[in-house]
Specification:
CATH class: Alpha Beta
CATH topology: Chemotaxis protein chec
Number of strands: 7
Mean pLDDT: 84
Shape: globular
Radius of gyration: 15 Å
Number of helices: 3
Order of helices and strands: HEEEHHEEEE
Strand content: 25-35%
Number of domains: 1
Largest sheet: 7 strands, antiparallel
Length: about 170
């Protein structure tokens, strides 16, 4: 598994990383009919046009971000909802948030099965041109790069939910 961290010697728990990777891969395999390919390393610099973010609080506080370039988002969301949604519409933001929520639920179930408490927040969605998600310096992060039939995408896990200004569970 390709794992990069912002701070040397400081990493997210492998249980969290693997649960997140399995959640992404199995959820998208179910939606798209094929498992996305996890790429070696973290791929190209993960810039994106729309991001779905979920925060987890519990035994460990961390955040999950699904980073989607516009072309990937359009194709993947069409597969997810069964119809074309204009990228610039509010519906696209809702659909990306719901996709992050579905993946997040799978991740929560996997962690619960491993006896790791992780209450997830409602999704937060950010959209823009050449969007980059930064964590505070020294905050451990893990980036996973993927390629699906719908295009490339990235998953970013950050150990501090405040680093992504993400929502707290129940908000």
């Amino acid at each position: 598994m390709a794992v990069t961290t912002a701070a040397k010697g400081s990493e997210l728990s492998p249980v969290i990383v693997e649960a997140a990777a399995q959640g992404v891969e199995n959820t998208l395999a179910s939606i798209c009919g094929a498992k996305p390919q996890r790429l070696a390393g973290d791929g190209a610099v993960p810039t994106s046009d729309i991001i779905g973010i979920i925060t987890y609080l519990g035994d460990v506080s961390w955040s999950f971000a699904l980073l989607l370039p516009q072309a990937t988002a359009s194709s993947l969301i069409q597969k997810f909802v069964g119809m074309e949604i204009p990228f610039d519409s509010a519906d696209m933001g809702d659909a990306v948030g719901e996709l992050a929520n579905v993946i997040g639920g799978d991740v929560s179930a996997r962690l619960e099965a491993r006896r790791v408490k992780a209450k997830m927040s409602l999704p937060l969605v950010a959209r823009g041109t050449d969007v980059k998600v930064y964590a505070a310096t020294g905050i451990p992060e893990v980036r996973l790069a993927y390629r699906a039939a719908q295009g490339p995408f990235w998953v970013k896990l950050t150990s501090d939910p405040g680093a992504l200004n993400a929502r707290r569970p129940g908000t």
